[in-house]
Amino acid sequence: MKHRLAVILPVYFVLYVLCYYGAYLLRFDFNVPEHYLQIFRQSLPVVLILKLGTSLVTNEWRRTLRYATLTDILHLIVGATAMSVLLYASSLLMFVMFDTRGVPRGVVAIDWALTILAFSLLRASYRLYNESLRPLFFTCAEKRRTLIYGANQEGIGILRALQATQSEFRVVGFVDKICKIRNSLVAGVPVHPLGTGWANLSRRFKAQHVLIPGTVSASAVREILQNCSKAGLKTHIIPTVHEIVDGRYKVTVRDVTISDLLRREPAQLDMQAIRNYICNRRILVTGAAGSIGAELCRQLLALEPEILLLADQSETGIFTISNELPFVRSNIPIRSMVADVTHKPSMERIFGDHAPQLVFHAAAYKHVPLMEQNPQEAIRNNVFGTRTVADLAEQAGVERFVLISTDKAVRPSSVMGATKLIAERYLQALSAASNTRFMTVRFGNVLNSAGSVVPTFRRQIEAGGPLTVTHAEMQRYFMTIPEAVQLVLQSGAVGSSGDVLILDMGEPVKIVDLAKDMIFLSGLRYPDDIDIVFTGIRPGEKLFEELFYKSEQDVKRVHEKIFCAPRQSTPIGQPVTLQGDLARLTAVLQRTDVEARNLLCEIIQKSDLGERQSLKPAA
What we know:
alpha/beta; Rossmann fold; 9-stranded mixed β-sheet; 21 helices; about 50% helix
């Protein structure tokens, strides 16, 4: 309010006088002797000065009535107590020095109590009017009757936020999985057990919506979504505090997304260890315009590096991310460079001009069917791009080098997977005689990455379908982009040189189930509104992706969601053999697609891992 003090000071002034006079009335049973009325009149200016002074010290007038809390009441008690002590001390001093009767002790005590009671009631009544009475009388008809899942801290926080912001939602009940006390009230709202049934609750409260805290597990969200749909209730997600702080969502109610159905419990990160190796370092991110690279940049900025260097061959992509990042953190220098990791002079200039201390190598060609048609470019970018950046990092004395790899490097059936496997082995060979810590982080599909299945399904739904799935039994591991990047940063903190770190991807998901979920979230029904057609497995694809080789099953867990594979002793990991293979790959770049694929097949077949590789020579 623009003239807030002009309104509140007279109110406080009147209450100060009434409390002090009321203390005399109560002390003398509403029959105050004339002598004490004289004391009241003489001491009133002093009392007002003391009360105004203590209110100023405790910031009483700066505390809004609309959002009054117990903390405000505590400061009110402190201020009233300080005022009473000062008033009694001044009265005692007057008696000692001038033998003049001061304010009675009973009046001081009663005034203390009345002051706390009056101003507490003032705050409580304003909140009552603002949160309960005003919406009831003025906007009740416009409100959407809503249930909240979970009568816990998160659920109550949602209720408070909705009340404070005059939201369009009116909360009429909590639904709790574990309701120990039936018919109980939390914050004045009834709580009912989940066993009552969503349909029964919908009828009883005439509710149309259900709000779900963003901390609820994906499996629980999936179950709630299915049951609420049958009951005719629309579900919404309230973003978590971390999602709001990170800027991924605004403080608002949003619809359930596919990420809510596939995400897992958040990992407990060792932020101090991550910050220790990121803070005040010069960091280079290759592939910075890609889905993983861009999220790496966002999260790295929050850890306050000395400078963040962005490199990508996509001019449009690097322009987009470099314009976004200053809004994430404006005080960190950012240098954006259009550069191809396969072009050694460009990369030499970056390392020479900026001397990065940490490198996150996310630049890669990733689309499996496309790389089947372009094996030379997959080799050039994924193998020789990695070699170029890794060699320059080793020469420049970079502290840590983290390669972003893929589960498709495990028994690769595709050109893309084979090139990533060779890149992994090259880093392990390089780490044997280098002071730089070379690490590889291997994980599966990430949701909503550019060109991935989720955006593809979304476009097909918008076009009216059908959704195309290659095979009814095809499964993939999925992880959200922010979660994958968090664990990449954690891997950089816990990994040793030469390590292959594998992220715990949870349980694989059938692609056809993912398609059905997206149809359902779009408000459609399968197969009535939109159909799914099976197109057959594409070249290079597997039905089931793997995160480990069989010989890597004896992994050690270095973090609750990170495994470290045992070191492999393979011919393509030995420097002499590896250099020879790379020379042959260099030569094949000028030959046919068939020759390139066959050479890749020959190289990875030499892996002494005790199992047959999946990549087949060209027919």
